[in-house]
Fold this protein.
Amino acid sequence: MKPYLSSMPLGSLTLWCYFIWYLAMVAFHFDRNAKLWANSLGLSAIVGIALVLATGPLSLARVRRQFWQVARLFLCPFCVSSFSALTKEEGFFLLISPSLEENMVALLLCCCFCALVFGVRKTQPAV
């Protein structure tokens, strides 16, 4: 875990913060409606396959070699579609909740993660 955190590029750190924000908002606005989650999974499969095909071959070798990259191509559309369904008519502006408390919790979680990453980087010897 330390090697991953200590060498994490800024782009990956940003994606992790998006995911943390998503999880925080899902925690506040969770809906047990199975149809919502099934639709999100279906859209994730359709868009994920299209994204994989648009970025290279769809092969088992690629999945093995670049598992997390391929997984993100499916996870992103799932998060976008479920976030959109969960926050519909809730007064959100893009990713920002109308609730200051919700935004502060999500921001605090992201800041804690960034502090962890930068803390690990400081303790790791330069390569």
Summary: The chain has a mean pLDDT of 94.
